[in-house]
């Protein structure tokens, strides 16, 4: 069976005739229709963890490096968003 995109989409003239949002689903592919009805997937706990990880992922303050009694020169736990994932 061959895929026909014309059956998934309305033409531009048909879109112009749409007056209410109930017909918006006809414009989108069927796969996207389910995404519109679903809420955000992040729970509150996930948002808190992401916020904490964002705050921790920063360099040391400049004044801290200038202190004479510390040997810490950089943040050893710095994380790059592409290299290391959070596993949340």
TrEMBL record:
Pfam families: Ribosomal_L39. One of its GO terms (cellular component) is cytosolic large ribosomal subunit. The keyword Ribonucleoprotein applies. Keywords: Ribonucleoprotein, Ribosomal protein. One of its GO terms (molecular function) is structural constituent of ribosome. Belongs to the eukaryotic ribosomal protein eL39 family. This is Large ribosomal subunit protein eL39. It comes from Rhizopus oryzae (Mucormycosis agent).
